[in-house]
């Protein structure tokens, strides 16, 4: 029984050291292998709980006079509890903090921007729209069919066929 606990503890420690050394490469491989679609079964929580199982089992073997079955059950309980704690305090906050720069084109309606290439009355120019992740340059047309010179602040009022339809907008106007 002690051998199993040592293997669990050593395997977890080796995984932690290799993750530290190989970083994202190993992380990507492990996550691809363990991609079950169940967020609670994250590879790091699984390996962490196996490591805790091994460590707790070794400690219990050496400090108590309990039967092996009882030690296994207690070590498993400690491992499940550590799995939960790792998920709640490590994995979930990291997953929630992952940022994406992606946006839907329709989400740009109502956003403000600046004309970077003049928009003619019957043609296309370019505007820089400010988003939460930075800015994006997009093709634009005048919604009112009036020319809009470069440097003018505009507001997106519609989107069609990958084109933003904009109107001049002063910073004092707030809807």
From TrEMBL:
Residues that span the membrane, as ranges: 7-29, 41-61, 68-90
Domain of life of the organism encoding this protein: Bacteria
UniProt-listed Gene3D superfamilies: Nucleic acid-binding proteins
InterPro entries, alphabetized: NA-bd_OB-fold (IPR012340), NfeD2_TM (IPR058653)
Keywords annotated in UniProt: Membrane, Transmembrane, Transmembrane helix
Transmembrane helix in keyword set: yes
Span of domain Membrane protein NfeD2 N-terminal transmembrane: 1-99
Transmembrane helix is among the record's keywords: yes
Listed name of the protein: NfeD family protein
Species annotation: Polycladospora coralii
């Amino acid at each position: 029984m002690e051998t199993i606990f040592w293997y669990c503890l050593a395997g977890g420690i080796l995984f932690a050291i290799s993750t530290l050394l190989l970083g994202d490469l190993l992380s990507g491989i492990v996550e691809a292998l363990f991609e079950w679609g169940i967020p609670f079964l994250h590879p790091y929580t699984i390996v962490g709980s196996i490591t805790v199982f091994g460590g707790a089992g070794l400690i219990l073997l050496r400090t108590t006079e309990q039967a092996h079955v009882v030690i296994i059950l207690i070590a498993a309980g400690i491992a499940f509890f550590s799995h939960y704690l790792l998920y709640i305090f490590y994995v979930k906050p990291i997953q929630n903090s992952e940022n994406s720069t992606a946006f839907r084109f329709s989400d740009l309606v109502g956003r403000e921007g600046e004309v970077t290439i003049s928009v003619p009355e019957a043609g296309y120019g370019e505007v820089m729209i400010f988003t939460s992740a930075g800015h994006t340059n997009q093709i634009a047309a005048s919604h009112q069919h009036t020319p809009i010179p470069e440097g003018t602040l505009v507001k997106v009022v519609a989107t069609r066929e990958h084109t933003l339809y904009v109107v001049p907008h002063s910073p004092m106007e707030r809807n």
